Amino acid sequence: MNTMEEYLNQLKAAFAEEDMEDFEELKEDLLEQLAICLEEGQTEAEVVARLAPPEEIAADYYADLSLDAAINAKTSVVPREEIQDVFIQTQKKRMRKFLKTVFMMLKPLLFLVLLGLFGFFLVYTIKELSGERNLAGIPTILCLLLSALILQLIKGGIVKKRKLINGLTIGLLAFGTMMLLFFSATGQLMYTGRQYYKEISLTSSNHAAFSFDSDADVEITTVEVSSTEKPSLMVKGRFKESDIKKIENGSHDNKINLSLDKENIFDTFTRTGRSEVIFFIPKGTILDDFHLGLSRGDLRLLDIQTKNFDLDLIAGDVYAKNIIADEGNIDSESGDVIIEESAMNLKVNSISGKTVITGMLGDLTIEGNKGLSILKFLRSDNVALNNYSGRMILEDSEIKKLKATATDGQVIVKRTKGDILLSNENGKIVSEENLGTLELENGSGPTIAIQESKVNAKVSSQSGFIKWLQDPSQSVKVTASTGTGELRNDFSDVTDSGKYKIDVKSKTGDVKILEKVE
């Protein structure tokens, strides 16, 4: 072979038809190197003679050992560094080809995703335009941008209209950018509703009821008014047009039942801000029902008499005072609940907030996870406190039966009278100056009891430390035992009176029964 044309024909014959694109790239590289050598004074025959045989080049290509073959080939006409660069560029081209193939495979899926998003934002825009009389800024802009992307995806299959499609794409992008700048400058990217005020009055105080639900941020207050007035509700703030229609067109009669600002997928770009709700309740009125269901809000509830008192709150604080109800139920995920001087049978479910109840009359059940419960001056037949890892404190109360259980938290009961059962798995139990019957059960956590007066008690533990401090002037017979732990009992020699007795047992923990020293 004396000419490059003959060499390339033989090299082409060694390549498969589907690899012609790679062959053309290699052909261009060889022709470029030939031109360089000719400028240096070499003849075409000399250059061709120094090239590796065509079948060897093809074999190296299919074995993906182009770099090794090029470096070790003694007949190579190209310097080693340049061949390495050629190989690297070839690998980059292969990677681009691979990515192009992957894109072509994923192109239908990407098209469907973009089409689905476009459909959603188009429906969003139409729905808000018709229902709220508002041009949704962000959904409209996204529709324009998605339209531009979809046009570019389908451009490959419409060869004759490519210039038109490119023009439409540029136009859509420009229009979308202009709308973005306009809505940003005017503060209309998010829909904020309309400023609105309304006072709704019930027909009479007999069997009146209030029910209010909202997913927006709400500040709620109750106000006691003259007994000659009728129960009423005032709403004030920014509201969606659809919610204003609910308020205006609702038939309230003797019960207000409003559900405003309920979140759904078509409120993603709606921000109405905090609203205000005030309940006006005539003095002496006994409501059939008082219900609040809120996602976010702060509540100040005063002087309410109702058969059912129901609060369902995700985030926000509750302050309630002088609430008289047959049944009460409060659900709070992360807010603080404070109740003072009220009377009802109450159930509280709090996940992580603080619960403070003082001066309450009625049965009480508290279910908590990791919050804090502070209870004072209760007068109850039954109190049940259940917590996982939080802290429960009960003080200065009279309870016929108290049961407090925890998994890994703290249970503290002070100056309380009644039958008291405190149970914990791994946390701490503290009993101080209680009257009645005590039963303290702990797994591996510490148990501490401090007593001035005599009391009947049973204390048991698996492996936790037990410490009992007793006023020596009110000595009582204490029976204490432990399996493998240290034992000290300062009241082991006290004569059994038969009326008061303390029994302390631990399997492996230390037990110390000590005289209380002032």
From TrEMBL:
Q: Which domain of life is it from?
A: Bacteria
Q: Which residues cross the membrane?
A: 102-124, 136-154, 166-191
Question: Which InterPro entries does its entry note?
Answer: Toastrack_DUF4097
Key words of the record = Coiled coil, Membrane, Transmembrane, Transmembrane helix
Q: Coiled-coil region(s) at which residues?
A: 13-40
Residues in DUF4097 domain copies:
215-370
Q: What is the name of this protein? A: DUF4097 domain-containing protein
Question: Whose protein is this, by species?
Answer: Enterococcus haemoperoxidus ATCC BAA-382
